[in-house]
Amino acid sequence: MTRPDVVVTGLGATTPLGGDVASTWDAMLAGRSGVSALTQEWAGQLPVRIAAQLAVDPSEVLERVKLRRLDRSEAIALIAAQQAWVDAGLADSVDPERLAVSVGSGIGGATTLLAQDDILEASGPRRVSPHTVPMLMPNGPAAWVGLELGAKAGVHSVASACATGAEAIALGLDIIRAGRADVVVAGGTEAVIHPLPIAGFASMRAMSTRNDEPERASRPWDKGRDGFVLGEGAGVVVLERADHAAARGARVYARLAGAGITSDAYDIVQPHAEGEGAIRAIAKAIADADVAKTDITHVNAHATSTPVGDMLEIGALHKALGDHPVLSATKSMTGHLLGAAGALESIAAILAIRDSVVPPTINLDDPDEGLTMDVAAHKARHLEIPAALNNAFGFGGHNVALVFTRA
Amino acid sequence: MTRDEITAGLAEILEEVAGVNPDDVAEGKSFTDDLDVDSLSMVEVVVAAEEKFGVKIPDNEVQNLKTVGDAVSYIAAQS
């Protein structure tokens, strides 16, 4: 039996650069930063006072009463999924029992948990919202998307920290290949711009403290990089069995040709010192996709702007793929969307293939000597892209690589 | 407080919690069947009503409050 081909037929996103895919992509190609100063009162006491906040607040899109029972991460997952669904033009052309969802989050409903804990402390247990549990449960975003779209082939919620969005897409590929669904709505969501998660990441010394220059703070591969910038947002793709898409005459963005997933078994937060797990993930994705390495002319890298991680990824790409691709670190503009990063960056890789363009990496003013590969610094660059790779790595030692090819 | 005043107070709560149009709120209306208030929202309505009207509505009483009129009668008797 031959393995079914899987294609991407819909895209949706709400990000620090725009409220949908088109505005986000335009801003990326223009090299705009979505990072700004946190002006909330609580930010004053924090060592990190910058973040990449949503360009369009969910309250501008969803009804007030609906929003009352959604964690912010759930609301934006719904918004992105709705966009992707409409974009795919599926409407009634998929059997609900052949429609699955794979949407994950890195941290989940932490802001709901913390807000309800404040209510518990101040007013007692009877005032805690009856919506608390469905708002904070990690499967909440996937469940809401499944409910909204009427998906009955299974609703899945991957959690692999900053690899979540990419792993959710990889799971969608597996589901279609295994014959369990014809269409999978897959992606990631994250909304934890709140003092506690920020304080936690800051205590790990993982975040940039370039508070006076928000737009210049996320600077992957630059010598002056000092940590990641927290972002919020959601990215969702519609994955579809190729013959299902062809039968309904669907517009196809790209093919999801392969995925590679490995784990380091090395340290709970530090990546393996030689990038061993990342190398294997990239190699597996290339083998799974069955493409020539030379066809992969572009990589949307994980590149979060941390001193150690950025260079380990370059080493891993050098070993597993070679030095020929042109790289992008779109986190230089969007900040790090944690569990949504791999999904948003997959969307960027897919659009890079479609438009034959490599999005810029901003703030790369003084490249690290270890940066041995070509990067489209500051400005977007025209390039034929038969295939593109997206990497996503997460705390816990998760490594995910995805290969997309021209449809 | 008159029954109409209590009904108006409940209508405000129902609009805030569940997006119910205040014009639809009348004593004969069922919370679930007519006003589409689900079980979790009903919990919110009860807690908000306790605060607004200064009454206690025990959990075992809530199941008897099928209609807006039931709730108005209960609150009127307690306050």
Automatic annotation (TrEMBL), chain B:
Query: Pathway involvement?
Result: Lipid metabolism; fatty acid biosynthesis
**Entry keyword Cytoplasm:** yes
Q: Which organism is it from?
A: Micromonospora sicca
Taken from the UniProt entry, a GO cellular component term is: cytosol
| Record InterPro entries | ACP (IPR003231), ACP-like_sf (IPR036736), PP-bd_ACP (IPR009081)
Q: Which HAMAP family match?
A: Acyl_carrier (MF_01217)
Q: Where is the signal peptide?
A: none
SUPFAM superfamilies from the UniProt entry: ACP-like
Q: Which residues carry this modification: O-(pantetheine 4'-phosphoryl)serine?
A: S39
Chain's role: Carrier of the growing fatty acid chain in fatty acid biosynthesis.
Q: Could you give a single Gene Ontology term from the biological process aspect? A: lipid A biosynthetic process
* Keyword annotations of the record: Cytoplasm, Fatty acid biosynthesis, Fatty acid metabolism, Lipid biosynthesis, Lipid metabolism, Phosphopantetheine, Phosphoprotein
Question: How is this chain modified after translation?
Answer: 4'-phosphopantetheine is transferred from CoA to a specific serine of apo-ACP by AcpS. This modification is essential for activity because fatty acids are bound in thioester linkage to the sulfhydryl of the prosthetic group.
Q: What is this protein called?
A: Acyl carrier protein
Q: Which gene encodes it?
A: acpP
Q: Which family does it belong to?
A: Belongs to the acyl carrier protein (ACP) family.
Name all Carrier domain ranges.
4-79
| Cited PANTHER family | ACYL CARRIER PROTEIN, CARRIER DOMAIN-CONTAINING PROTEIN
Q: Name one GO molecular function term.
A: acyl binding
Tell where it localizes.
Cytoplasm
